[in-house]
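Design a sequence for this backbone.
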């Protein structure tokens, strides 16, 4: 595979916190059979983004798209992720690295979350 998708999440101390992200990774991988799909974290969990990308490059991947699985563009995405991306580009000059916007800012994602919230209120008790 020459392309990869990295789902980039914050990370937490509790291992169970990663379970929904692992499910998202698996569901995404099932829909992208010709693309390596990985999960990476900013902190507190492994692998961190630099290690995940380095591993992909070692596997021969030439293009990586990073999708921040965050609800909004807070400090981590405004400061930390651009610094990480710059470091990855410097470490892997032949790599094409794309960084998407925060998943929670996508209109389709917001619509799905809104639908869920509305169903929660409308659900019988």
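Sequence:
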């Amino acid at each position: 595979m020459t392309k990869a998708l990295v789902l980039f999440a914050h990370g937490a101390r509790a291992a169970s916190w990663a379970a929904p992200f692992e499910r998202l990774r698996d569901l995404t991988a099932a829909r992208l059979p010709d693309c390596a799909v990985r999960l990476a974290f900013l902190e507190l969990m492994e692998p961190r983004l630099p290690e995940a990308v380095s591993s992909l490059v070692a596997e021969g991947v030439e293009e990586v798209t990073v999708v921040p699985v965050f609800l909004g563009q807070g400090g981590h995405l405004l400061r930390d992720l651009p610094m990480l991306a710059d470091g990855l580009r410097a470490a892997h000059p032949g790599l094409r690295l794309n960084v998407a916007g925060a998943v929670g800012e996508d209109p389709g994602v917001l619509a799905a979350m809104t639908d869920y919230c509305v169903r929660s209120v409308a659900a019988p008790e």
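The radius of gyration is 16 Å.
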